Amino acid sequence: MQNHATAPATSAASGASRFAELPATASHGPLRIEYRWVNEQPDAPEDDAPLVVFLHEGLGSIAMWRDWPQTLCERLGMRGLVYSRPGYGLSTPRAAHEKWPVDFMSVQARDILPALLDALAIELRQRQRMWVIGHSDGGSIALLYAALYPEALAGAVVIAPHVFVEDLSVQGIAQTKALYESTDLRAKLARYHADVDSAFYGWNDIWLDPAFRRWSIVDALAPIRRPLLAIQGHEDNYGTMAQIDTIAARVPHAQLVKLDACGHSPHRDAPAALNDAIAAFVRAQP
User: What is the mean pLDDT of the chain?
Assistant: First the structure.
């Protein structure tokens, strides 16, 4: 999910967008993925600084992050990788007739992210020092990646993640569809996506599909072994504290942060508190 876009697309990620070509697999056709580096170190050894991979929200893209990945990477002393998932930003758009499957987030965690890391020659020893940070749908993908590949990351931070479908989420997404089709929201989002209808309806259609009401990744969380921080705002209009409380019940070592005066997008609503929480958590790890 997302806050309604109101500003021009900007990003402090280093340089212009680059593109990685991913070959077709059983779960997807050939893909062109837009990506950028943050704090790129071209003259340093490839594994000199730990890497943070940022996974955007349900209507996000590289540009929608704005300057937050840069700010956080500087705070952590790490380099970052931001990318637009298929259907978003400048990555391969969703075909007009294509409908995402109920397990689309599992496909992203199991297939797309590892394939991108392979394409960028990020080896296992680098992944073992890598932090995965995801927001909203991206938070769910980060959880699934941490469960599927527990030896291929240092830890995960999930911000306003979804582990099951709440009525509140569906109501908010239905309202967003009405705004998209009756206000200037479509024009605002078009600043961030080459094919804005691909981005919007890929996300909106599956979340509003009756079959998706049964979606849950709760039972998939148990294999998570690496450090895990889950963050939620008290005023999130797309999910309740039940989401991260459920994570803590299934992953006992997970730590929770609940932010006051904060909605669905802490990196925009409460960036100082969010950065403080993430920095303290990451630095506390051995």
Answer: 93
